[in-house]
C-alpha cells in the first residue's frame, strides 16, 4: 500500500503542478475578471481537472503494484499519462483559442472579443491597416472602441452581415480605435439600471442592491451592459470621468 500511495502522491503533485502552471498563466495573462466569467469556460476547466488531477492519479493508485515488472508498470502509467496529455492539450488549445483579446465599446454595449472571433483574413487586414490595435499571438486584453465605418456602403454591409450571423465590426480590427476616442460616444449611451434591456426585473433589483452596497448611485445614467459568451455583466461608469467604477454580476 505504501508503494501505491507513493506513486499516487507523485502523480497527483506533478499533474497538479502542470495544470496550475497552465491555468495560472492563462488566467493572469488573459482571463482575469471579467474574462473568465464572460467566456464561460467552466466546462473545459472541469474536464481538465477531472482527467488530469482526479482520474489520472486515481488510476495510478489502482494499477500500481510492486509485484509488477518495472517495464509493465511504466507501460501502464505511460498510457494513463498519454490520456492526461490528450485532455490537457484539448483544454489548453480551447482556452488559448478563446482567450479574451478585447473589451470593445460598440454602438450601445460593451462586448468581449475572443481570439476565435477574429478570423485570419480580418487579423491580417488589421495588421496592415491598423497595426497599433491589431491582434498578435502575444496580445493581452485591451479596451477599445469599435465604431461602424463612416462609409455608408461599408456600414450597410457590416450591418447586414451581422444580422445574418456573419462578422460584426467588433471582429474587424481595421476599424478599431483607441478607447479614449470613443468616450464621448460612450457617455451618450449610458443608461439607468432599470433601462438596460439585458437583465430581468429580479436581476435589476439584485444589481441595484449591489450598487448601493458599493456606494454607487443606482438611479443615474451610469451603467452599460458588458456581454460575452456567458451571462451579461453590468459595468458601472462614472458619468463625469467615464472611469469604470465596478462590474457586477446579476446573481
What's the short story on this structure?
The protein has 251 residues and is of the alpha/beta class.
Question: How would you summarize the topology of this molecule?
Answer:
Layout lengths: L1 H30 L3 H5 L2 H22 L6 H28 L2 E7 L2 E6 L5 H10 L12 E4 L6 H12 L13 E2 L4 H6 L12 H13 L9 E5 L5 E5 L6 E5 L3
Parallel strand pairs: 1-3, 2-5
Antiparallel strand pairs: 1-2, 3-4, 5-6, 6-7
Helix pairs in contact: 1-3, 1-4, 3-4
Any overview of this molecule?
The chain has 251 residues and is α/β, with parallel strands linked by helices. It has three domains: 2-97, no CATH class; 117-186, no CATH class; 190-251, no CATH class. 50% of the residues lie in helices and 14% in strands. It has a seven-stranded mixed sheet with strand order 4-3-1-2-5-6-7. Strand 6 and strand 7 (244-248) form a beta hairpin. Helix 1 (2-31) runs antiparallel to helix 3 (42-63).
Q: Which terms would index this structure?
A:
50% helix
**Strand arrangement, largest sheet?**
4-3-1-2-5-6-7
Instruction: Estimate nothing, just give the exact number of structural domains.
Output: 3
Helix content: 40-55%
E-strand count: 7
> Which secondary-structure class do the elements indicate?
alpha/beta
Rg value = 23 Å
| Cα-to-Cα separation, first versus last residue | 46 Å
Low-confidence stretches: none
Range of strand content: 5-15%
Shape: elongated
- DSSP summary: helix tally: 8
User: What is the H-and-E element order?
Assistant: HHHHEEHEHEHHEEE
Largest sheet: 7 strands, mixed
The chain-level mean pLDDT equals 93
Amino acid at each position: 500500500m505504501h508503494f501505491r500511495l507513493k506513486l499516487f502522491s507523485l502523480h497527483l503533485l506533478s499533474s497538479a503542478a502542470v495544470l496550475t502552471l497552465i491555468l495560472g498563466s492563462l488566467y493572469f495573462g488573459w482571463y482575469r475578471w471579467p474574462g473568465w466569467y464572460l467566456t464561460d469556460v467552466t466546462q473545459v476547466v472541469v474536464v481538465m481537472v477531472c482527467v488530469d488531477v482526479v482520474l489520472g492519479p486515481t488510476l495510478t493508485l489502482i494499477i500500481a503494484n510492486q509485484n509488477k515488472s518495472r517495464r509493465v508498470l511504466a507501460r501502464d502509467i505511460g498510457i494513463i499519462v498519454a490520456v492526461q496529455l490528450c485532455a490537457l492539450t484539448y483544454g489548453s488549445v480551447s482556452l488559448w483559442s478563446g482567450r479574451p483579446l478585447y473589451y470593445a465599446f460598440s454602438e450601445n454595449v460593451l462586448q468581449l472579443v475572443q481570439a476565435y472571433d477574429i478570423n485570419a483574413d480580418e487579423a491580417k487586414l488589421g495588421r496592415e491597416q491598423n497595426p497599433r490595435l491589431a491582434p498578435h499571438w502575444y496580445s493581452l486584453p485591451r479596451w477599445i472602441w469599435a465604431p461602424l465605418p463612416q462609409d455608408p456602403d461599408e456600414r450597410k454591409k457590416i450591418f447586414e452581415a451581422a444580422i445574418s450571423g456573419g462578422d460584426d465590426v467588433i471582429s474587424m480590427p481595421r476599424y478599431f480605435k483607441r478607447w479614449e476616442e470613443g468616450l464621448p460616444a460612450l457617455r451618450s449611451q449610458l443608461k439607468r439600471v432599470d433601462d438596460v434591456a439585458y437583465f430581468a426585473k429580479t436581476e435589476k433589483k439584485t444589481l441595484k442592491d449591489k450598487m448601493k452596497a458599493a456606494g454607487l448611485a443606482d438611479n443615474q445614467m451610469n451603467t452599460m451592459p458588458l456581454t460575452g459568451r456567458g451571462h451579461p455583466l453590468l459595468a458601472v461608469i462614472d458619468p463625469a470621468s467615464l472611469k469604470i467604477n465596478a462590474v457586477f454580476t446579476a446573481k
